[in-house]
Amino acid sequence: MSRHAKKLRDHDINPCVAETDATTKCMNDNNYNKDMCTDYFLKYKNCRKFWHEIMMQRKRNGVKPEMPAAEERKKILESMGKPY
Question: What are 52-72's pLDDT values in tens digits?
Fold first, then answer.
């Protein structure tokens, strides 16, 4: 596996690994018919948008690291009740 692929699978770097996996599984299960996986694509898009907004807010506030670690993200989601 390439370094780039490993980074995408790292839960501390990519907050949407589960959504990525669900989308890929749906595509595989439905013979790559995108129409069958619209909900999965939407969940992935909303996940990326949510964490991007968190990251930008932390950047504006001078918080490092800009992307919260996996444990911190888990606490954020628990406190908000999975917003996407």
Answer: 999 999 999 999 999 999 999
Within 8 A by CB and 6+ apart from 53, the residues are: none
Nearest CA-CA partner of 27 in 18, 16, 17, 38? 38
In this prediction the pTM is: 0.84
Q: Quick check: 50 and 84 in contact, CB under 8 A?
A: yes
Taking only the tens place, the pLDDT of each residue in 27-51 is 999 999 999 999 999 999 999 999 9
CA angle 66, 58, 9 (to 5 degrees): 35
Phi, psi of 37 (to 5 degrees): -115, 20
Q: How far is CA 59 from the centre of its chain?
A: 18
